């Protein structure tokens, strides 16, 4: 091969030189492995339908007998429930009943003993107390 032919064959379609040192090739392989690992570790985007209770009002009973009623805005599998515009009801040992309004609350699912969806068409609890 002539020098001109070698010069042409050593360039790729972009005109860049394709001759790399072993260190450059090793670095390129390592970058490729790191990119593949990052893609595998990235959270998978699911095409699944959202949970049917999203946007619905739920009544959640906790282990300590508190009852929280609010609108479900997020659900993480067996993780947490995220409720907005919630109302917490707590009954003390002496029979006293206490209510408090919560704008946003995260409830670890491990503390949930019961969960009920409010029937469609019923007035949301947030509007009943207003």
Automatic annotation (TrEMBL):
Region (Disordered): 1-50
Composition-biased stretches (Basic and acidic residues): 1-10
Residue ranges of the TM segments: none
Signal peptide: none
Compositional bias segments (type: Polar residues): 11-23
Biological classification of the source: Eukaryota, Discoba, Euglenozoa, Kinetoplastea, Metakinetoplastina
InterPro entries linked to this entry: LSM_dom_sf
Protein's organism: Trypanosoma brucei equiperdum
Name of the protein in question: LSM domain containing protein
């Amino acid at each position: 091969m002539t020098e001109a032919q070698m010069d042409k064959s050593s360039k790729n379609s972009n005109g860049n030189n394709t001759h790399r040192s072993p260190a450059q090739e090793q670095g390129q392989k390592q970058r490729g492995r790191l990119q593949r690992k990052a893609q595998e570790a990235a959270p998978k985007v699911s095409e699944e339908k959202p949970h049917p209770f999203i946007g619905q009002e739920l009544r959640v009973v906790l282990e300590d007998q508190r009852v929280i009623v609010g609108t479900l805005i997020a659900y993480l599998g067996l993780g947490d429930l995220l409720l907005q515009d919630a109302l917490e009801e707590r009954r003390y040992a002496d029979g006293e009943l206490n209510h408090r309004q919560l704008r946003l609350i995260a409830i670890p699912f491990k503390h949930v003993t019961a969960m009920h969806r409010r029937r469609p068409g019923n007035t949301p609890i947030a509007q009943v107390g207003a």
